[in-house]
Design goal:
The chain contains 11 helices and 13 strands. It is globular and about 60 Å long. It starts with 10 loop residues before the first strand and ends with a helix. The strands form 3 sheets. The chain has a 9-stranded mixed β-sheet with strand order 5-4-1-6-11-8-12-10-9. The chain has a two-stranded antiparallel ribbon with strand order 2-3. About 35% of the residues lie in helices and about 20% in strands. It folds into 2 domains: about 130 residues, Spore Coat Polysaccharide Biosynthesis Protein SpsA, Chain A, CATH 3.90.550.10; about 120 residues, Spore Coat Polysaccharide Biosynthesis Protein SpsA, Chain A (Alpha-Beta Complex), CATH 3.90.550.10. Helix 3 runs antiparallel to helix 4 and helix 10 crosses helix 11.
Length: about 300
């Protein structure tokens, strides 16, 4: 493939239609994407990651009861006026800046038919362009950029790119796992096969796909013909596997190896760990929180 023919990537798709059942009852009326990590909803961290990578066009795939997500990225003139009247300019700027982060669009998935179907809902908006997909359950620390090297790898090598991270072999059944071969490029591997949530003894490696993708638009045609898999859902992993094993239908597929800080906010325990870790590193509240944590561990959790 002629690398000079690569078009720049400008659009990101964020699936946000999940029911958040692991966080019930709080997610009965509150979208899981709006659960706070310190003082920002989880979805805002993801949009900020998109913007930091130079992308400004965001499509969110939403569903029922997701209106608070749309409201969050819109202006709130009453709140802004109240803050202005109080002279609270710091919070006013924080609130106003959210609406200016990116051009955010929305489309409803309609029915929960899996991640592959959610991505397929973006076809009309994306058109024939390569695009990024970011899952809101995976928060990537801004100090360890991931999306930028993925875009660079796609522009150099063509096809699609997934993010891969080593996990404990006992955890591979929670992820899609990749069989890979070296490319000669540091931190980038060629993906030759993928298995969705394999049993540990059947996993091709302990390299798990985490929630970042840069996809060739050929994925849409494949998804149209991808039959439902586990749970009756259309799996994105199945479509990417088709591209990895048959390069003529949209491949190749490469993986960028990630070893930075990642926070899994889809799990209740990891969600709490992420909140504590990010809060403890903040200059405004970190010192007090770290002092309290040391006291708590020493006194309350002492044997």
């Amino acid at each position: 493939m002629d690398k000079s023919s690569h078009t720049s990537i400008s659009k990101a798709v964020i699936p946000a239609a999940g029911l958040g059942t692991r966080f019930l009852p709080v997610t009965k009326a509150t979208p899981k994407e709006m659960l706070p990590i310190v003082d920002k909803p989880a979805i805002q961290y993801v949009v900020e990651e998109v913007v930091a990578a130079g992308l400004r066009d965001v499509l969110m795939i939403t569903g029922r009861n997701k209106r608070p997500v749309e409201d969050h990225f819109d202006r709130n003139y009453e709140l802004e006026e109240a803050l202005r009247t109080k002279g609270d300019m710091e919070r006013l700027e924080a609130v106003r800046s959210i609406a200016g982060l990116a051009r955010v669009h929305y489309v409803r998935q309609g029915e929960p038919r899996g991640l592959g179907h959610a991505v397929l809902c973006a076809e009309e908006h994306v058109g024939g362009q390569r695009f990024a997909v970011l899952l809101g359950d995976d928060l990537i620390d801004p100090r360890d950029p991931l999306l930028v090297p993925m875009i660079e790898a796609q522009q150099q090598l063509g096809g699609s790119v997934v993010a891969l991270m080593e996990v404990d072999p006992s955890q591979v059944s929670l992820y899609g796992c990749a069989a890979v071969k070296p490319t000669g490029q540091d931190g980038v591997v060629a993906v030759v096969d993928l298995v969705e949530k394999p049993a540990p003894q059947n996993a091709p490696s302990n390299l798990a796909i985490i929630g970042r993708y840069v996809l060739d638009p050929a994925v849409f045609e494949i998804l149209h013909h991808t039959p439902p898999g586990r749970g009756g859902e259309i799996q994105l992993t199945d479509a990417i596997r088709e591209m990895a094993t048959h390069e003529s239908v949209g491949g190749p597929v490469h993986g960028v190896l990630f070893s930075g800080r990642r926070y899994d906010t889809g799990d209740r325990s990891d969600y709490l760990k992420a909140s504590i870790r990010l809060a403890s590193e903040r200059e405004d509240i970190g010192p007090d929180l770290r002092g309290w944590l040391r006291s708590f561990v020493a006194n309350e959790l002492a044997p």
